[in-house]
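To assess whether ligand presence alters the predicted conformation, the chain was also submitted together with nicotinamide-adenine-dinucleotide. Input:
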Amino acid sequence: MRKKVTVIGAGNVGATLAHRIVDKQLADVVVIDILEGVPQGKCLDLLEAGPIEGYDVKVKGTNDYKDTANSDIVVMTAGFPRKPGMSRDDLLNTNYKIMSDVVGKVVQHSPNCILIIVSNPLDAMAQAAYKLSNFPRERVIGMAGILDSARFRAFIAQELKVSVENVTAFVLGGHGDTMVPLPRYSTVAGIPITELIAKDRLDAIVQRTRDGGAEIVKYLKTGSAYYAPSAAATEMVEAILKDKKKILPCAAYLNGEYGIHGLYVGVPVKLGSKGIEQIIEIKLTPEEKAALDKSAAAVKELVAVINV
Ligand SMILES: NC(=O)c1ccc[n+]([C@@H]2O[C@H](COP(=O)([O-])OP(=O)(O)OC[C@H]3O[C@@H](n4cnc5c(N)ncnc54)[C@H](O)[C@@H]3O)[C@@H](O)[C@H]2O)c1
C-alpha cells in the first residue's frame, strides 16, 4: 500500500512540496488549507499533470481533516511568511495561533503520524507542536538545517566553481540570525573548506548563509522562499518513508544533548521510518559551543513568550 502524506497549508511552500512529493511518487498526498477552493484547485492541477509526468499517486485538496486520516507523515506549512524588514520571530504569535488550531486536529485524525514542522519561527513552532501533540520527540521534527546547509553549500560551490554534489556542509542551531554554520565540518570532496577558502571570503559566505532567507524576502517583497524550503522538506519525507537512516541537520527536542535541556535546536539527526532515530553529538570547539548556546538562548526566549 502506498504511504500517505498530508501537507497543511496550500501556499507557496505547501503546494511546491506537494508537487515535489508526487513528482517523486513518494506517497499519496492530501493538501489541506482554510481557504476554500485553493487546495482543491491546486491539487486537481497537480493530478492533471500526472499523465504527462507519469505519476500514479493520488493527490487531493481539501478543507476537511477527515481526508487526512491515517497519514504517515503530516507536514505543517500553514502560517504567515515574513515580509521585508520582518524577522522570523515577528511571526511568533500569529503562527502559534494557527499551530494551536491545527495540531489537535492532526493528532485526532493521524495519531501515529510523524510531524514535520516548517512554519516559522521554526524552532518555537516545533516546540509548540511537540507540546500540543503530546507525541514522543522522535515524531516531531523541525525543518531548517537542511535548508540553511543547502544555502551554505550553494554559496561554497559558487565560490569554488565546483559541483554542488561535492559540497557537504553543516549548519546547527536555531533557524534565525543566530544559526551556526560550521566551516570545520564543511567539506568539498572531503577537503575541509577552511583549507580552500580564505577566511575573509568564508566569513562573508557564512554571513550570507545567515541572511539567506532575508535576501530572498527582500527580492520577493510579498513572501519568502519556497523552492529550496520545499526541497528540504521533501528530503526529510523521503528519508522517513524510505527508512534511509539519513544524517541530516534538523530541529530536534534536546534532552541534555549538547548540554541543552527541553528545547528544540538544530542538530544532526538520523532520519528513518521511526522519525528521529538518533541525535548525533559532534565535538564542538568552545567558540562553536558558545555560538550554539547563544542560538539556543534565542529559541528559549521565544518559547517563553508562548509558554510552551
Ligand atoms: N522552516 C523554514 O526553513 C521555512 C522556509 C520557508 C518558509 N517557512 C515558513 O513556512 C510558512 C509558510 O510559508 P509560505 O511561503 O507557504 O506561506 P503562504 O502564505 O504562501 O502559505 C501559507 C498558507 O497557510 C494557510 N493557512 C493559514 N492558516 C491556516 C490554518 N489554520 N489551517 C490551514 N492552513 C492555513 C494559508 O491560507 C496559506 O495558504 C511560513 O510561516 C514561513 O515563514 C519556513
